[in-house]
Amino acid sequence: MERGPIMRVLAEIKGTSKSLRLSLQGRETPVEIEQVMEAVELHSANGIRITTAKNDIWLDASHVSAIWHTRDEG
Q: Which residues, other chains included, contact 14 with Cβ-Cβ below 8 Å and sequence gap of 6+?
């Protein structure tokens, strides 16, 4: 997956209680990212650094198969 869609969702959930689930190649269960404080595109073609309330996460978007999060329809 390209990082553009992931960055758009991360920007939407930044500073909220919403979470993002990532389906990664080679992993049976999705990874859930919550309490996003910052997301930055790295110099590499697909790299993203995500800062949450508890963790710093470095992600290569090319290993992401799918993403999903709950939208507010209210």
A: 36, 37, 38, 39
Could you list the residue range(s) of the whole structural domain that residue 51 is in?
3-68
Length of the chain: 74
Task: Give me the number of domains the chain comprises.
Answer: 1
15, part of any domain: yes
Q: Is the pTM of this model over 0.90?
A: no
Scan for tokens 């992993």, then name that residue: 27
Hey, what are 38's tokens?
């910052």
Distance CA(27)–CA(53), nearest Å, equals 24
Question: What's residue 69's pLDDT?
Answer: 74
